[in-house]
Fold each of these.
Amino acid sequence: METKKIINILPTKEGFFGEYGGQFLPEGLKAEFDKITEAFLKYKDDPIFNKELNDLFKYYAGRPSPVYHCKNLSQKYGAEIYLKREDLNHTGAHKINHCLGEALLAKKMGKKKIIAETGAGQHGVATATAAALMGLECDVYMGEIDIEKAKPNVDRMRILGANIIPVSEGTRTLKEAVDAAFNAYTKEYETAIYAIGSVVGPHPFPMMVEHFQSIIGKEAREQMLDLTGSLPDHIVACVGGGSNSIGLFSGFLDDESVKIYGAEPLGKGDKLGDNAASITYGKKGILHGFKCLLLQDENGNAANAYSVASGLDYPGVGPKHCYLHDIGRVNYETISDIEAVRAFYELSRTEGIIPALESSHAVALGLKLAETFQGDKILINLSGRGDKDIEFVMKNYPLK
């Protein structure tokens, strides 16, 4: 498919990126989402709001996160490999970027509580952190399986004062956590805000989360120019819902010389229920109030999704990702559980950096590209650190 020129892609007034996105809501919620949209559009260009947020990014979250040249991996694989180190942010992942933005917006709107869902726990930790900082209550919905897999993050959330609400329905993972959180929000929207954890959900959340995450791409673009004198040839990020990836991609969409790749979770294979590769295997459908490419069963309902990385096992994907796929600007490829775990160990043992299993999907795809494009510059978004995954990996994929 021929790539089209991309210039500052924004959603329509109704929240659509091409055919995807929008706002499919119960009538009672539409007025509240209109208020959120109005508040976001007001504050995103407000100098006082932006100074407050930028100060939080710099002095609280530790931005800018560095770009690191992986000399050992580069020598081994034959391409120049760089990492955007979002794992070094406060709370250990990119999630703090939009959580600080959403919590600050909630405070400006006079809300008293943040409601959130989480899979791997990184969004939950970042939300709990931002809520503690802003003096807000925090309810985090999390599937029972994910609670067991990511116990260190569950403990962190509780220490930070969050109320963890286990979800026992369905697969007891991320989709059901979103279901439960959204249902709770419909009963408390007058005093609470739902801090969605990715570029998914009804308008304006895909646009809003991207806005706060776009700092990744802005920094990375400048850093690569400063460090190497030119832009990377390839950029790579993992894609579940798609917040870390859209944050990185946003800084390079206009640069036609830069090839962009999203690593989707193939899980255990291409059979329905064995993966969470929504763009690769999904069909158009509506989930959680927005239209996207969606893994569906024979009845058209959202199918069970699976990935070794809890933060990626969502059956849908952000609407802008769907649009970028359709126009051919981003190449979405799949990485299996085994490939991700191998990359987890490879980065750990070669560079001394333990990545999150989510980020390991991007690392795996980046290493594949390195073997193909010898001598090229490849920038990988290391969206989070692997502390939360160590116990799970050692138990299920032990060292040999």
Amino acid sequence: MTPLLPAFDDVLAAAARIAPHANRTPVLRSRSLDALAGAELHFKCEHVQRIGAFKFRGACNAVQSLDDETAARGVVTHSSGNHGAALALAARERGIPAHVVVPDGANAVKLAAIEAYGATVHRCAATQAAREAAAARILADTGATLVHPYADPRVIAGQGTAALELLSETGPLDALVTPLGGGGLTCGSALVAAARGGATVYGAEPAGAPDAYESLRQGRHVTDLVPDTVCDGLRATVGAPNLALMRQLGVQALLASDEEVVAAMRLLWSRLKQVVEPSAAIALAVVLNNPAHFAGKRVGLILSGGNVDLDALPF
């Protein structure tokens, strides 16, 4: 039985499991961005990961973890984009069916990727309840395995491999910043940070979707907020196991407005010469807007994805 919460050993196992499939992404520096932040910034470029986002790590680990009999029945998820594309590709490489429930209004570029990788797309209303209900129907019909976008321990462990690579290249860091939506990347990164030097982990969350921030602040799982943010990859409600792991590992959440995110996105395009999506740029936004937390420190930032709809740029 898969445990509810993963451990650091699961991240190490995931790293070995996905090594033949995932890219080892570069770490970039920028003197001008260091000067703006008053800190030493190390950018882990997951926007050049396969499917254009870190999500391939977790999806690949989950799919490659399945025994042959289970895998043959296929996999199911619900996703607004990057995780759906990641699972579709991971399933295609394993030669098994993938079903992706996509809410109305999903990013067109990400939807096209899901279809291009061969998954069967199922549309639903743009609510968490509708997504979960549609996935449940498919599971009942097919006997497939659910690979949750962020609450699956195999996914969390896989996402943690990005931070594992980052720290292996940079050495000890004072702080590690990840975009925070459902919490898979943040939790996987926190497992690595706790085991490898103890960097403080910050989850960067949109001010228009602050459910994790409010959950940590209020000491309860806040699930009734309606997201309103340009960061389409960060609109999901933080998972219950993710929140528990964040509390356990001392993760802090910081907020950025959409205006701050778009400004950071422009900086990353112009200064670092990297095409990243708003959900990735939020990591830089919270560093620039919270100098008390980061000034004078060595900071790792995970640029989570680069799947931008070029016909609908936020600037």
Amino acid sequence: MQKYESEITIVGGGPVGLAAACALADCGLKVLLVDAGKRTGKHNELEVNVEKPKFDPRVSALTVSTRNLLKRFGAWDEIERTRLCPYEHMTVWDGDGTGAINFSADELHEPALGYIVENRVLSAALAQQVVARSAITVLEDCAVERVIKGDHDLVSLSLSNGASVDTALLIGADGTHSIIRKESGFSIREWEYGQEAVITTVKTEYPHEFTAWQRFMNSGPLAFLPLCLPGLDDENQCYCSIVWSCVTEKAEGIKVLDDKEFKKALGSAFEFRLGEIQEVDKRFSFSLWQRHATDYVQDGTALIGDAAHTIHPLAGQGVNLGFGDVEALSGVISAAVNKGEDYRSRKVLSRYQRYRKSQNLGMMLAMESFKRLFGSEELTVMWLRNTGLNLMNSLPLGKEQLMRKAMGI
């Protein structure tokens, strides 16, 4: 049976886990990355013909702050070279009223409000940076089965391939159903929203105008996120990734529609802002939950990304929160190493928790408030939210502060 020893072991090869591996390797530490899949470093997404209009159904709306972090790792250049879509405008409106708010990058003197990036492109670019760092060892196609507090303050892992790992610090980046969180005994608060998100890629009659569109309805929000194909002029950029969140009963009805019926229902729900829906790809769906770990850290263990928290996708902030965790945790560990402190101690790791927990809870509270506000059918609440949207739209300073916070700048 093979045994590995590591200063830091990260479990989870998604974008957040890959970013954490890069950040901690850059701190001068030896990192072992354990992934249950076969994805890390084996993508050919950066080499394929990117002009083919076959998009990943899962996309991320990356903030300017996240872009800056990815630039630091060297991943952003590959993302730009492959495929992304900056969005320069955002339009949000109340589908059951008259309230609306519009944002523009020009108002902030920024080139973009954010960037829509396909998840497989994001993962591929980060994986390329992982394999380029000699301080990172990658174990793929093996899952963690047990977590045991070992001797000499080490954490021990038993893997599905029969191997074992002894590590000074264990980082759980293994997603919503984190085995690290469960095996390490972290408690969690969670509840189901009673909604599902239906996602797919569509082609619209009119160009998306590099705008992120979102309509709020009582049944849930509908987002159209712009996608770009290299080589096309702006008038022919008509592909969008859609995230249609709605109450479970309605989602069940949507999922059984054939392509023709779905295009008609989607166009109507979007008020045909971009004309008819001309093409639609295969649909996928997932239930929406909110989860939050009571603590993010123990001695020798930390949680990041969806292993620590998941939120409603209505503002597309989930993965950005995870990248914020990476930046904060790596900063804390780097500072501790430079001072000669025990970076695996709860005393040190709690600095990460104190900062990120308040940030994440603030975003989670905001998303929950938005969901409840726009889910209400009470006339007084509807009047207040529409009045509030229109008032905010008329206050340039308030809009600027709101957008800068959302962009992480």
